[in-house]
Amino acid sequence: MAEFFISSNKYSLSERQTKRGKVYDIRFRIVTPDGIEKQKRLAGYANKTLAKQAYIDFITEKCELIKNNPIIRQKKAEKGQEILTIKDLVNTYLKSIRNQIKDATIYEKEKIFNLIILPRFGDCQLKHLTRQELYLWQDELWSNKNPKTNDYYSYKYLSKIRTYFSAFLTWCADRNDGFTNYLLTIKKPKRRTPKKEMQFWTRKEFETFIKVVDNQMYRTLFSMLFYTGRRKGEVLSLSPDDIKPNGIRFNKSITRKTLDDSAYKITSTKTEKVATTPICKPLKAELQNYTVPNGPFYFGGDTPLTDNTIRRVFNKYADIAGVKQIRIHDLRHSFVSMLIHLGANLTVVADLIGDTLAQVTKTYAHLYEEDKKKIIDKI
């Protein structure tokens, strides 16, 4: 086994004067077995040839050639892992992905890391994230309750936490030799929770609601949400130029989840789709009666309407109309339900609401149950 290592064949010769006359020394770099790099000197040779031969004999008998000193690199990597905490790595990770995904997603990731991950692992080092430790964390997470509601966290929310954490650990594994993302090998628990019934209004219920809305701006806004099935952010981001005689162009959205403390930002749509949705007769009538305000936003003018204001107004008119309370987003479900019962297939539904066919199938396929029964009855 070699006593030393060398990372190159370079050396330097020097001469010096002694009482015996001129002699030659030869110097070169060696690496000790514990990874320390230092200079080696072979001294006192009568001529250059002898000095060079001594160098060759030394490296042949006692040294092994290596490149880039992997011992040093490994020790630096281990040192880095010992110093950096999970909190340090999370900050670097979020910066590295900032230009790859939307600000709204970064906002969500930051919130989950600060609320769930860092209180548990913030001061830990990567080496502490063993399989056993991650199993323990997952078991605790699935058994914890939301302190605000005292209810267990939803399976969807728990899965999102796990997905975000695993993506971070994979990023760490790609950049740190010897670290493994054990979360990939840990089975995700199941949670049997009753599915919440999808809330929506029938067209008759919406017509009962819209009759009592005496503010034309809100009347037009609620009608657009119901008769296009578009997401609230896509409707609130509309500009006057997006409203055409026979269609509404949806090519952007608005988000309140910003990273620079601004009130809102305009982004692309959730699925990155750009489409023009046809205008039905009831909606066209509302648009004709609507006086568009000055400013960049079709609803609001200089600034978009706020979510809290819309929700408060929506609930107020629902109470006046005597219809059941639903969320603003449930107007999207209401539109889809109406389309399905009018005979639209899922591909048409997906195109009209600006979603993917896979997501529409996952979310709304159960609404076809009544249609399936009708078909079976006709056999």
Task: Please explain how this structure is put together.
The model has no long low-confidence stretch (mean pLDDT 88). Helix 3 runs antiparallel to helix 4 and helix 13 crosses helix 14 (357-364). This protein has helices spanning 48-62, 70-83, 86-96, 103-121, 131-143, 155-175, 203-211, 216-228, 232-236, 281-289, 307-321, 330-341, 346-353, 357-364, 369-378, and strands at residues 4-6, 12-18, 21-31, 37-45, 63-65, 247-250, 253-255, 265-267, 275-278. The strands form four sheets. Strands 2-3-4 form a three-stranded antiparallel beta sheet, with helices on one face. Strands 1-5 form a two-stranded parallel sheet. A two-stranded antiparallel ribbon has the order 6-9. The chain is of the alpha+beta class and 379 residues long.
Order of helices and strands: EEEEHEHHHHHHHHEEEEHHHHHH
Helix content: 40-55%
Radius of gyration: 34 Å
Q: What amount of the residues lies in strands?
A: 5-15%
Output the structural class. alpha+beta
End-to-end span in angstroms? 84 Å
Report strand order across the widest sheet.
Answer: 2-3-4
Number of helices: 15
Ranges where pLDDT stays below 50 over 5 or more residues in a row are none
Largest sheet: 3 strands, antiparallel
- Mean pLDDT across all amino acids: 88
Short description:
48% of the residues lie in helices and 12% in strands. The chain contains 15 helices and nine strands. The protein has helices at residues 48-62, 70-83, 86-96, 103-121, 131-143, 155-175, 203-211, 216-228, 232-236, 281-289, 307-321, 330-341, 346-353, 357-364, 369-378; strands spanning 4-6, 12-18, 21-31, 37-45, 63-65, 247-250, 253-255, 265-267, 275-278.
